[in-house]
Amino acid sequence: MVDSGGFTIDGVAASTYGITLRYSPGIPMLPDTRDRTVEIPGKNGSYWFGSDVGQRSFSLPCRFEGCIDAAALDVLIRAFARLLVDVNGKPRALSLIFDDAPTITYTVRYSGAIPFDRAWLGPEFTLELVADDPYGHEAEQTAEATITTSPGVMTVTSSGATSTPARLEITNTGATPITGFTITTEYEV
Fold it and tell me: What is the pTM of this model?
């Protein structure tokens, strides 16, 4: 695997900008929840109406490596800052992939501030990103099968942790119309 500095953002390795992660960021197993509760007078505790998962935040401890002088550092800083915002200077949606999980992509945006320490032994900063969709996504997997007998069975299995219904496409390659087929799934279709 190519060392990209610890992560790739919007298809560009962080190392392209001379950036490396100082240490592996502590990414929570799950984001904070948004709990819906109400307190009822005369009842101990509260009544829970359910919960949803909120945004996922990333605080990436970074360092610029190999800067030979202040001018070279300024060029890298400006180039990296342009990556984080659109032409109007507003945060934009970016893909984020960590080197230790190269098949999982988060859609993130710059959020907050980027505190910066210009120490010459390795200028450091913390890159604050937020994923409004808190889940990482893997590339779509495609499976094809030709069913020539009746009954025919094709099993589709998801390796993810979130219910993701399969998209089924049925194509008839023969002259006889397809009739009387049944699709059984554990998810809503």
Answer: 0.73
